């Protein structure tokens, strides 16, 4: 496994996403945690809304059962999405973290992310809430998710240190790199969907975290082994054989190869798959292979 800094937090490049564990048996969740830690993936991604809180609850029970020391793993959670609206008010941020900590059986979160931009956010109010959480020892580092550069800049203008931005990114959802590869062309990929987010995050040392790294569309399904994407799969399977890993692991290695030094938030609930995907950190695709995979999705270079 390879590691990177998220603010002051040392976190694994492969993060275990916990969005799908709410209805999984406790033993399975324990196995996910054990296999992930064995493979070096020490970082677990949560949100207050995953399984209406049940994902955090089952995870909290599992770590207690396993008798893990809190400093041996990294906990990240998110807040700000409510039923039908977004809420970055001080009260909501503070109470959401309090509830997450109770469910997770933890005294603190390593990282807290604001889940989706709230256009009614007031940067000074968010700053106040974050300062309180930090001085109370409840959160070590802060970040956002699905934010544009300008929205991050707004929070930073209030003095908030933003250490991560979690966004959708995969071979089949690659807006982050598409626009930079097609600047000023007439192609559809030239549409500026992120406002230069990739470069903004690199310039400001904000760690990009790629969610749904094996999926296409908005969580429509997995592209690996999917007959809708024959050219991409031919390429994934060939490189998998070359590197002695699974095709899904190659798709994760494609994300990790980018010099932005992103993290990949994998969402599998199968312990063996998670262990396999962690091998992506040890695969370094060549420049030629990286672009070959990109082109195999059907996108062309100008
Ligand atoms: N910030 C945000 O707005 C946001 C949005 C969505 C997700 N997320 C985070 O990102 C994480 C990952 O999202 P995701 O679950 O959509 O990601 P994903 O890794 O693209 O998809 C995981 C799904 O793919 C299935 N899968 C099928 N074949 C697989 C294979 N060969 N290897 C691995 N998995 C395979 C898994 O099934 P099995 O479980 O049966 O293995 C699981 O249902 C979430 O857990 C959450 O933490 C964040």
How is this structure best summarized?
The chain has 302 residues and is an alpha/beta fold. The chain has helices at 26-38, 54-66, 90-104, 123-135, 149-157, 175-181, 197-203, 230-243, 247-257, 271-278, 287-296; strands at residues 3-6, 9-12, 14-17, 43-45, 74-79, 81-82, 85-86, 109-114, 139-145, 164-168, 207-211, 215-216, 221-222, 263-266.
Tell me about this structure.
- Helix 1 (26-38) packs parallel to helix 10 (271-278) and helix 8 (230-243) packs antiparallel against helix 11.
- The chain has helices at residues 26-38, 54-66, 90-104, 123-135, 149-157, 175-181, 197-203, 230-243, 247-257, 271-278, 287-296; strands spanning 3-6, 9-12, 14-17, 43-45, 74-79, 81-82, 85-86, 109-114, 139-145, 164-168, 207-211, 215-216, 221-222, 263-266.
- Helix content is 40%, strand content 19%.
- It is globular, with a radius of gyration of 19 Å.
- By secondary structure, the protein is α/β, with parallel strands linked by helices.
- It has one domain: TIM Barrel, CATH 3.20.20.
- The longest helix is centred in the first third of the chain and has 15 residues, at 90-104.
- The chain contains eleven helices and 14 strands.
- The strands form four sheets. An eight-stranded parallel β-barrel has the order 3-4-5-8-9-10-11-14, surrounded by five helices. It has a two-stranded antiparallel ribbon with strand order 1-2. A two-stranded antiparallel ribbon has the order 6-7.
- Strand 9, helix 5 and strand 10 (164-168) form a beta-alpha-beta unit.
- Bound molecules: NADP nicotinamide-adenine-dinucleotide phosphate.
- Residues 17-20, 45, 145-146, 166, 211-215, 219, 222, 224, 248, 265-270, 273 line the site of NADP nicotinamide-adenine-dinucleotide phosphate.
- The site of NADP nicotinamide-adenine-dinucleotide phosphate has 24 residues, from strand 14.
């Amino acid at each position: 496994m390879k590691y990177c800094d998220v603010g002051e937090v040392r976190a694994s490049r492969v993060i275990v996403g916990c969005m799908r564990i709410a209805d999984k048996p406790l033993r399975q969740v324990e196995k996910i945690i054990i296999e992930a830690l064995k493979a070096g993936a020490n970082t677990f991604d949560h949100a207050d809304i995953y399984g209406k809180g049940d994902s955090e609850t089952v995870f909290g029970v599992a770590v207690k059962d396993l008798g893990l020391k809190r400093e041996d793993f990294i906990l990240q959670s998110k807040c700000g999405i409510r039923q039908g609206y977004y809420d970055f008010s001080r009260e909501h941020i503070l109470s959401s973290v309090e509830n997450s900590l109770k469910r997770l059986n933890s005294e603190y979160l390593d990282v807290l992310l604001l889940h989706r931009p709230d256009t009614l956010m007031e940067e000074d109010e968010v700053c106040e809430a974050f300062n309180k959480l930090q001085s109370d020892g409840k959160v070590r580092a802060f970040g956002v998710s699905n934010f544009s550069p300008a929205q991050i800049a707004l929070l930073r203008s209030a003095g908030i240190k933003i250490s991560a931005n979690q966004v959708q990114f995969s071979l089949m959802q690659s807006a982050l790199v598409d626009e930079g590869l097609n600047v000023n062309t007439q192609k559809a990929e030239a549409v500026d969907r992120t406002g230069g987010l990739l470069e903004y995050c690199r310039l400001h040392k904000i760690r990009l975290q790629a969610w749904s790294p094996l999926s296409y569309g908005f969580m429509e399904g997995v592209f690996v082994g999917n007959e809708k994407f024959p050219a991409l799969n031919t390429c994934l399977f060939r490189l998998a054989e070359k590197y002695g890993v699974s095709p899904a692991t190659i798709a994760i290695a494609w994300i990790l190869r980018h010099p932005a030094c992103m993290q990949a938030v994998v969402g599998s609930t199968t312990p063996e798959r998670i262990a396999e995907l962690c091998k992506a950190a040890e695969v370094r695709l060549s420049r030629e292979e990286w672009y070959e995979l990109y082109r195999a999705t059907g996108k062309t270079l100008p």
